């Protein structure tokens, strides 16, 4: 893999997003620069410091750093462990309409919940692929994934919302499961399966099941189904969406499984519950 001694040249295309991959050599150098677009750097490997104005932001693997448009910045690597960075450069028109943009585009290190990291990396890989092998619709895919990344960074509560799983004051795996449960409350619609959840946390299925029940009093499936049905109840009362649409939005793959789950929990069919 070719190591870089200078920054990647960036030209923002018409769709407003450019993705870069930069693996630094030990003698990488960057002069202070300013750009008219937002930059999101995700560190895959290495250590270094990103200078943003007068800030000195130390960063290492798994860190995400925000550089707002117009802010002077430069990167200084640890020569013993140079940085490998993925960057997403986003034109301001893609997000400036959001009234909270100034808040979540503040410069510096962005706290990200460890459970959100796989999703961020998947987005980066997909954007790089679409940019490298363009096809019909790639521009829209890249722009959409960039907006999704911004949404993740804006809404993620980061590791500060709960003590870190490896904190000496907590109980390792139990805390990791607690963090996962917090995430599942907001992402019940895209949960896959219990094996994937346990694997993501790096623990056995049996241990995950034990800790999950201790924390919630329910099995993983019971907890997940309850969150989905609760949201379905909200949509049935607050919107005029069809039952089919609601089932899909809540994470049910087919209508029959939604009806069974809803009847089991609410003891009545969705349409009848809506008419109450």
From TrEMBL:
<feature type="domain" description="HTH araC/xylS-type">
    <location>
        <begin position="175"/>
        <end position="276"/>
    </location>
</feature>
<protein>
    <submittedName>
        <fullName>Arabinose operon regulatory protein</fullName>
    </submittedName>
</protein>
<dbReference type="GO" id="GO:0043565">
    <property type="term" value="F:sequence-specific DNA binding"/>
</dbReference>
<keyword id="KW-0238">DNA-binding</keyword>
<dbReference type="GO" id="GO:0003700">
    <property type="term" value="F:DNA-binding transcription factor activity"/>
</dbReference>
<keyword id="KW-0805">Transcription regulation</keyword>
<dbReference type="Pfam" id="PF02311">
    <property type="entry name" value="AraC_binding"/>
</dbReference>
<dbReference type="Pfam" id="PF12833">
    <property type="entry name" value="HTH_18"/>
</dbReference>
<dbReference type="InterPro" id="IPR003313">
    <property type="entry name" value="AraC-bd"/>
</dbReference>
<dbReference type="InterPro" id="IPR037923">
    <property type="entry name" value="HTH-like"/>
</dbReference>
<keyword id="KW-0804">Transcription</keyword>
<dbReference type="InterPro" id="IPR014710">
    <property type="entry name" value="RmlC-like_jellyroll"/>
</dbReference>
<dbReference type="InterPro" id="IPR009057">
    <property type="entry name" value="Homeodomain-like_sf"/>
</dbReference>
<dbReference type="InterPro" id="IPR018060">
    <property type="entry name" value="HTH_AraC"/>
</dbReference>
């Amino acid at each position: 893999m070719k190591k870089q001694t200078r920054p990647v040249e960036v030209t923002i295309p018409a769709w407003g997003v450019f993705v870069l991959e930069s693996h630094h050599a030990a003698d990488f150098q960057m002069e202070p620069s300013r750009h008219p677009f937002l930059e999101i750097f995700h560190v895959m490997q290495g250590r270094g410091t990103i200078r943003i104005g007068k800030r000195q932001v130390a960063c290492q693997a798994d860190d995400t750093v925000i550089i707002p448009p117009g802010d002077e910045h430069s990167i200084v690597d640890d020569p013993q462990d140079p940085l490998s960075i993925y960057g997403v450069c986003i034109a301001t028109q893609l997000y400036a309409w959001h009234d909270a943009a100034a808040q979540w585009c503040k410069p510096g290190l962005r706290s990200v919940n460890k459970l959100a990291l796989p999703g961020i990396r998947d987005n980066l890989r997909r954007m790089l692929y679409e940019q490298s092998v363009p096809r019909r619709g790639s521009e829209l895919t890249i722009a959409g994934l960039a907006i999704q990344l911004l949404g993740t960074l804006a809404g993620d509560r980061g590791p500060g919302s709960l003590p870190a799983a490896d904190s000496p004051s907590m109980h390792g795996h139990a805390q990791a499961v607690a963090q996962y449960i917090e995430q599942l409350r907001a992402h019940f619609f895209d949960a896959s399966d219990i094996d994937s959840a346990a694997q993501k946390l790096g623990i056995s299925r049996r241990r995950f099941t034990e800790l999950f029940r201790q924390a919630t009093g329910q099995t993983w499936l019971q907890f997940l189904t309850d969150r989905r049905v609760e949201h379905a109840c909200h949509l049935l009362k607050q919107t005029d969406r069809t039952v089919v649409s609601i089932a899909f939005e809540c994470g049910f793959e087919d209508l029959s499984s939604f009806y069974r789950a809803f009847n089991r929990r609410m003891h009545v069919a969705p349409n009848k519950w809506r008419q109450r």
